[in-house]
Amino acid sequence: MATREEMSRSFGSATGAYETGRPEYPADAVEWMLQPARSEGRSVRVADVGAGTGKLTRALVEAGGQVVAVDPDAAMLEALREAVPGVPTFVGTGEALPLPDEALDAVVFGRAWHWVDPVLASTEVGRVLRPGGVLGLIWNIRDERVDWVAEMTQIMHGSNAEVMLAEGGPEVAQPFDGLESRSWEWSRAMTREMLFDMAHSRSYVITAEPAERERIDRELGAVFDRVGVTGDGVVDLPYVTTAFRAGRP
What is the pTM of this model? Predict the structure, then answer.
């Protein structure tokens, strides 16, 4: 099995599957994260850290943010530049942001905080935020109260993010003191191909041995057959989006 570090850096080899298979972020959740950082008369200066192919970046731009994107994987940033032209991109991590002191109103992590050291990343985010700025964390998690969705997770293995949220959620450290949270329920229409892409964008599957990937595809295919997702047919995949925010004193 791959190490945590190998899994965290694996996504650049699956940018196509990531872009197609991963969901967008609800606009209401993004706005809720940014709301404390808004100042009348100007847009929010925000960094999307662990930006990947730009799923959250797009929502931040649509919310009127002046956005920069940071990711440790140059291949992911190349895909982001194609998907969201004009957004400045930088190679970096939550623990080492290539950004100046007190330059930003908000720093957000979309499905990425579970990869960082929360103490080091909290310190670094605090450095680049202005006083009164906000740290935002957000995850889209499939709603496993639905039986066939729970079966998918058993086949693919739970992700680090899913385990972290099930065990009580993310941790932050100084200068942040606790987190507010809210959740939103919604669904995404998915074809069979999109469902496979979602599976193939997960770090466990990307780094799995060929025989394990074949098992996952075979067992997922049986689930999709049973729920009637064949050809160009679609099924609604339910999600629960949970967002967290904390202000910098």
Answer: 0.92
